[in-house]
Amino acid sequence: MTAPDAAELRRRAQDLLAAHPPAATGRTAFLRARFDAGLAWVHYPAGLGGLGAPRSLQGVVDAELAAAGAPDNDPRRIGIGLGMAAPTILGYGTDEQKQRFLRPLWTGEEVWCQLFSEPGAGSDLAALATRAVRDGEDWVIDGQKVWTSSAHLARWAILIARTDPDVPKHRGISYFICDMTDPGVEVRPLRQITGEAEFNEVFLTGVRIPDRHRLGPVGEGWKVARTTLMNERVSIGGARVPREGGMIAPLARTWRERPELRTHDLHQRLLNLWVEAEVARLTGTRLRQQLVAGQPGPEGSGMKLAFARLNQEISGLEVELLGQEGLLYDDWTMRRPELVDFTGRDAGYRYLRSKGNSIEGGTSEVLLNIVAERVLGLPAEPRNDKDVAWKDLSR
């Protein structure tokens, strides 16, 4: 079967709109119909929300539907599902898993979270201690996860746990899909410096996961997890933004609207950051084009590094530009938001929230090592624990 071209995709989008007029069709019903028509993510296989078309043609469909006022799936709210769970399920899931999970994931009917980091296994994720013990057709999970975005909203989670403590840490991990409504799953809020609790800690006590919800072979969960992590860094650092979009937008707007705040020094710093933000945006565009031909690689780590540094420097300059106004903060109310708006609210929020950018999605220190070793080809750091059984590691 020949992959559809741009004209064919445009025709299919028009057929969808004719059969399901957005003004007369409920949001969820329209999104389901779009998925079934293969117009959700066109590069996915037929029957799984796609048509086997080039990834680069997704914009043709999106533009056609947006012009007609069709609803989107609110991608910021379901970013973990779209950017991390979906490509992992597509790459390692069984046919049954793909059919069960991808459609409600894409439509936003089921929110996903990521149960990876632990109190003792953040930067060194492979040192995780959450255990999964086989019991018949189930796995029994016990442990604690932390820094889990959207866990308070999630129906499902991607989870890695240790299934064999007698082998080196990278080799004894397996990858599961966890039902967040199951008995034994407890979600507690973690209040952040912003006052909000968008993150959570999750306690798993005797949680039973059927073996049919395992992704990939037993003991090869680290390989599966690397697919998730590479996609995560691309989704964070390589997000599509318009020219002068993202964190630079409110700073540039303030500069134009408040000439009385300007100084020569601030002007030079703004220009430098504006140029760097534009370079990062164009680099992200090139990275997404490279993804058309294959899987995400370590380049996403470089983009995520730039994203964190720029956000922190830009938000710091904005607070400095505003002077005393920049010290104001609008609302310290404890709340558990449905999504994170890095450019929303006021300058104080942006300044505080950006501090987490160099931690979440892989710390900047770890990403520097990845770029050094896998992009620049520098010698790997010595790792004394590489061939030591996990149970013999000092913790």
Helical content band: 40-55%
Give the overall silhouette. Answer: globular
Arithmetic mean of pLDDT:
91
Gyration radius over CA: 22 Å
The ordered H/E elements are: HHHHHEEEEEEEEHHHHHH
Measure the end-to-end span: 54 Å
- Count of DSSP-assigned helices: 11
Classification by helices and strands: alpha+beta
Percentage of β-strand residues: 5-15%
Question: Sheet bearing the most strands, described?
Answer: 4 strands, mixed
Number of E strands: 8
Unreliably modeled segments: none
Strands ordered across the widest β-sheet: 1-4-5-8
Keywords:
single chain, 395 residues, alpha+beta, 40% helix, 13% strand, globular
Spell out the blueprint of helices and strands.
Blueprint: H1 6-19, H2 27-36, H3 58-67, H4 79-92, H5 95-107, E1 112-115, E2 131-135, E3 138-145, E4 156-162, E5 173-179, E6 185-190, E7 199-210, E8 214-215, H6 221-237, H7 248-257, H8 264-291, H9 299-322, H10 347-353, H11 364-375
Parallel strand pairs: 1-4
Antiparallel strand pairs: 2-3, 3-7, 4-5, 5-8, 6-7
Helix pairs in contact: 1-3, 2-5, 4-5, 4-6, 6-9, 7-9, 8-9, 9-10, 9-11
